[in-house]
Structure to design on (109 residues):
Protein backbone atom coordinates (compact mmCIF):
# COMPACT_ATOMS: atom_id res chain seq x y z
CA UNK A 1 0.00 0.00 0.00
CA UNK A 2 2.96 2.34 0.48
CA UNK A 3 3.45 2.54 -3.28
CA UNK A 4 -0.20 3.47 -3.76
CA UNK A 5 0.05 6.21 -1.16
CA UNK A 6 3.20 7.55 -2.80
CA UNK A 7 1.58 7.57 -6.23
CA UNK A 8 -1.23 9.79 -4.91
CA UNK A 9 1.11 12.39 -3.45
CA UNK A 10 2.29 15.53 -5.15
CA UNK A 11 5.85 15.04 -3.84
CA UNK A 12 6.31 11.30 -3.14
CA UNK A 13 9.65 11.68 -1.34
CA UNK A 14 7.84 13.56 1.43
CA UNK A 15 6.14 10.29 2.30
CA UNK A 16 9.28 8.77 3.79
CA UNK A 17 9.94 11.79 6.00
CA UNK A 18 6.36 11.84 7.24
CA UNK A 19 6.39 8.07 7.81
CA UNK A 20 9.53 8.26 9.98
CA UNK A 21 8.14 11.14 12.04
CA UNK A 22 4.72 9.52 12.47
CA UNK A 23 6.17 6.11 13.41
CA UNK A 24 8.42 7.77 15.99
CA UNK A 25 5.46 9.64 17.46
CA UNK A 26 3.26 6.53 17.49
CA UNK A 27 5.98 4.42 19.13
CA UNK A 28 6.49 7.02 21.85
CA UNK A 29 2.73 7.31 22.41
CA UNK A 30 2.35 3.51 22.72
CA UNK A 31 5.34 3.34 25.05
CA UNK A 32 3.93 6.08 27.29
CA UNK A 33 0.45 4.52 27.31
CA UNK A 34 1.83 1.05 28.04
CA UNK A 35 3.93 2.31 30.95
CA UNK A 36 0.98 4.33 32.27
CA UNK A 37 -1.46 1.40 32.15
CA UNK A 38 1.08 -1.06 33.57
CA UNK A 39 1.90 1.40 36.35
CA UNK A 40 -1.74 1.61 37.44
CA UNK A 41 -3.07 -1.87 36.69
CA UNK A 42 -0.01 -4.10 36.96
CA UNK A 43 0.83 -7.35 35.25
CA UNK A 44 -2.75 -8.61 35.12
CA UNK A 45 -3.98 -5.98 32.67
CA UNK A 46 -6.27 -7.51 30.07
CA UNK A 47 -6.27 -6.60 26.40
CA UNK A 48 -7.64 -4.09 25.46
CA UNK A 49 -6.53 -2.21 28.56
CA UNK A 50 -9.65 -0.09 28.95
CA UNK A 51 -11.63 -3.27 29.72
CA UNK A 52 -9.73 -3.49 33.02
CA UNK A 53 -11.41 -0.30 34.25
CA UNK A 54 -13.97 -1.05 36.94
CA UNK A 55 -16.64 1.48 35.84
CA UNK A 56 -18.88 0.11 33.10
CA UNK A 57 -19.46 3.57 31.58
CA UNK A 58 -15.73 4.00 30.95
CA UNK A 59 -15.58 0.56 29.33
CA UNK A 60 -18.47 1.55 27.07
CA UNK A 61 -16.77 4.83 26.18
CA UNK A 62 -13.60 2.91 25.31
CA UNK A 63 -15.57 0.50 23.13
CA UNK A 64 -17.23 3.42 21.32
CA UNK A 65 -13.92 5.15 20.62
CA UNK A 66 -12.42 1.86 19.46
CA UNK A 67 -15.36 1.26 17.11
CA UNK A 68 -15.07 4.72 15.54
CA UNK A 69 -11.30 4.53 15.03
CA UNK A 70 -11.57 1.01 13.60
CA UNK A 71 -14.29 2.16 11.20
CA UNK A 72 -12.16 5.07 9.98
CA UNK A 73 -9.13 2.82 9.48
CA UNK A 74 -11.23 0.25 7.61
CA UNK A 75 -12.69 2.91 5.33
CA UNK A 76 -9.26 4.35 4.48
CA UNK A 77 -7.69 0.97 3.76
CA UNK A 78 -10.73 -0.25 1.81
CA UNK A 79 -10.65 2.87 -0.36
CA UNK A 80 -6.95 2.48 -1.16
CA UNK A 81 -7.38 -1.27 -1.74
CA UNK A 82 -10.30 -0.76 -4.12
CA UNK A 83 -8.41 1.96 -5.98
CA UNK A 84 -5.39 -0.36 -6.31
CA UNK A 85 -7.67 -3.07 -7.65
CA UNK A 86 -9.29 -0.64 -10.10
CA UNK A 87 -6.01 0.80 -11.40
CA UNK A 88 -3.97 -2.39 -11.48
CA UNK A 89 -6.57 -4.98 -12.54
CA UNK A 90 -9.65 -3.41 -14.10
CA UNK A 91 -7.81 -0.73 -16.03
CA UNK A 92 -5.09 -3.04 -17.31
CA UNK A 93 -7.04 -6.20 -18.11
CA UNK A 94 -10.67 -5.13 -18.50
CA UNK A 95 -10.02 -1.81 -20.25
CA UNK A 96 -11.88 0.21 -17.62
CA UNK A 97 -11.87 3.98 -18.22
CA UNK A 98 -9.39 6.23 -16.43
CA UNK A 99 -10.69 7.35 -13.02
CA UNK A 100 -10.38 11.07 -13.82
CA UNK A 101 -12.87 10.89 -16.73
CA UNK A 102 -16.66 11.05 -16.35
CA UNK A 103 -17.12 7.40 -17.33
CA UNK A 104 -14.30 6.42 -14.96
CA UNK A 105 -15.99 8.23 -12.06
CA UNK A 106 -19.24 6.38 -12.79
CA UNK A 107 -17.51 2.99 -12.93
CA UNK A 108 -15.43 3.78 -9.84
CA UNK A 109 -18.57 4.90 -7.98
Amino acid sequence: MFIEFCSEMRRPWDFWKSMVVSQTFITLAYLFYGCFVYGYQGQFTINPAYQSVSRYTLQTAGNSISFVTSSVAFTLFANIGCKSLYLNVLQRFCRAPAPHTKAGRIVWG
